[in-house]
Amino acid sequence: MNQVVLIGNISTPVEMKYTPNGHAVAKFNLAVNNPYNRDEVSFVPIETWRKTAENTATHCDKGSKVGIVGELKVEQYEKDGQKRTFTKVVAQTVEFLTPKGGSKGQDNTGNQGGYDDPFGGGAINISSDDLPF
């Protein structure tokens, strides 16, 4: 099985192109934090195709937080007589995690249920005598 799941922020402008056959291709780098060392960041090349590419280019920009599901692809080529290797993730799914209307690069946190908090986010004082157990 070859499946990669990443969450991070787009670190380069989304580059949109079309193949000679008219298929959309979007490319960008994704900044992904190391969960064990927050000071360490990996910049992962991402490539998307067709409608996913068009939607990503339309709705995302540098700084947008996204979730990626795709496959790891390793390409080998020769340049100046030396063999080189390039690794990227070809994303089948790009989930937009930056809130709609919010500034790009902002986390989608807080009240996500679509309702107002009746307690205003503050602490609730309840005496243990008021609890039924």
TrEMBL record:
Write one Gene Ontology MF term: single-stranded DNA binding
UniProt keyword rRNA-binding present: no
This protein's superkingdom? Bacteria
Q: Name one Pfam family in it.
A: SSB
Q: Which GO terms describe its biological process?
A: DNA replication
> PANTHER family from the entry?
SINGLE-STRANDED DNA-BINDING PROTEIN
What protein name is recorded for this chain?
Single-stranded DNA-binding protein
Organism expressing this protein natively: Shouchella clausii (Alkalihalobacillus clausii)
